[in-house]
Amino acid sequence: MLCIGSKPLENELFGSTWKTPIVEFAEKTDPKMILNGKDPSTGKIKINRIYLTRSAVVEILHAESPNEIWVRLSNHITSELCLREPYKLRQMANFEVGDYAIAPVSDRVFGRCIIEELRTEDRRKIVRIFFIDEGTRRWVYPEVLHELEERLAFHPWQAILVSMANVAPTTADLYASREWKTRDCEILREILNGFPYLRIDVLFSSALRNDYSRPVIADIYGVKNDGNEISCVSIANLFIEYNLEGVDVLDSLTDAADHVDYPAQETNEKSAVDPSHPTVPDDWKNTEEEMADVESSVIFKMSLREDGDDFDLQQCQVPIFEDNDIKKFVHDGKVLVALENFENAEPFELYARPIGPKKNEEKTIVSAETEYFVPCQWLLEAEEQYRSAAEKLDAFYSNAKNRKTLPKEEIEEMHRNGWNVYAVCAVHEDRAVVTGEWQRVEVLQCDMFAHVRYLDSGGREKVLLTSLYKIHKQHCTYPPLCLQLCLSGIRERREIGREGWSDEAVEKFRSVILSDECPMEISGDFEMLGSDRTPLELQQSPPYMAPHVWFISKLRILSHNGTVHDNMLKFIPNVISQPKWPYQR
Fold first, then answer.
1. How far apart are CA 14 and CA 9, in angstroms?
2. Tudor domain: which residues (predicted)?
3. CB 68 within 8 A of CB 189
4. 3-state helix, strand and coil shares in percent for the chain, rounded to the nearest 5
């Protein structure tokens, strides 16, 4: 929430004009937040930006200068905001600086952009645009600009503008204005290109600015991988080291309000349209009928014959995550995992995604600081894998003709015959924001609702039967990305006839023992029960009796002392150690 004081103070702090105001002011009325979408009075599109208020790991997009560095969060949704065939293009007849549009960003792909400048070169009009999700600028011809639908205006810019704190360009003349020289910017780009990811630590400001276009002021660090070690390196320190004559070191800022942005030196390069930049294809498909001949792509690849077996429930069985799969993540006899569905975790029912080095890749943790960045890097790699799989599911099942309803009767018949049932589920908004709109699930039971287990994001939930659809066999070729775990060798001493864990013990387990901020390390026994119970029998059994559950004896949270087992014995009353519990009683 933006809290702003009196009007004179606003003018003093903000000035009289703003590039991208957050709120608007009118006489004798309260400030009004400006929302995304189309302004009904002007017909103009408004798209807000992401303004970071915390530290984050990001990927570098482009750097114009130390005070104009474009980055993007690791969980960005750029792909979902791009337009591909079939799509009805509507060329823009009239436009001006500040208007939003779509333009070719790559071959046969359109991206969102904003118009920055209009010029005439060699007697022909050209337009400078900025791709708001890619963080890059291009000069293009007006005919490649097309109208942006309002539905695409409700997602903020994916590109985030960051300004490096505590550095300034040198100047020999105290009275001359400072600016970043071309060489300074080239050195910075060369440094940044050496890091696949950056960590930005945001500096907080005592002055509120009514302008989304202002950069995030931050200390910037490169995530460095030196063979067996991953560490964090200050970009400012490297910039100073490689450019002593061009950079002045400032006193460490504690308030971003004192930060100054310096312009980059202007160049005399002639604005010109890059002939290699994509244009609008002559054979662009505007309708689904025109698209029929290109639906053999990965996203749409499928046999749509009504008599085919691409959606047959018996054919569409997702493989269990087995020993050979877990071995790919073993490092020094241990497996790192990231906890999922934290709010519903119980000792006998945990969900976690394995992370870690790829097969035959060696990495070690060498210090307390590095212990954070090693799993941080592996988490990013795991997120990339998950995002790739989620994008394919979203793209495929968002196409209505790829959705086949899953009747309750078919589910019940499969269970009676001893078959597991796998499906895709249209999930609620809270879960979809993080893990995608369409998710693979196992249907455990049906009554008024469907009881499902999320294969890739973890957890069990009741969902509407109408939210389930048959899964295509191409999405059953890989095991779940999330493991279901059970802590073995420990239990709570309770009254006779009362099994499992008390509510008090579970609450203590979540609040004191676990952490959703740090990865966990599994060691010791790590095995599956291999239950042969049928789906109907499992409906009457505890969740840990399922054949896909992994039982673990030692679990440690990185940066925590002692194992989870040890801490449960120490901090939760009536918890005792009992080998092989709960699966051997």
1. 8
2. 93-153, 422-476
3. no
4. 25, 30, 45
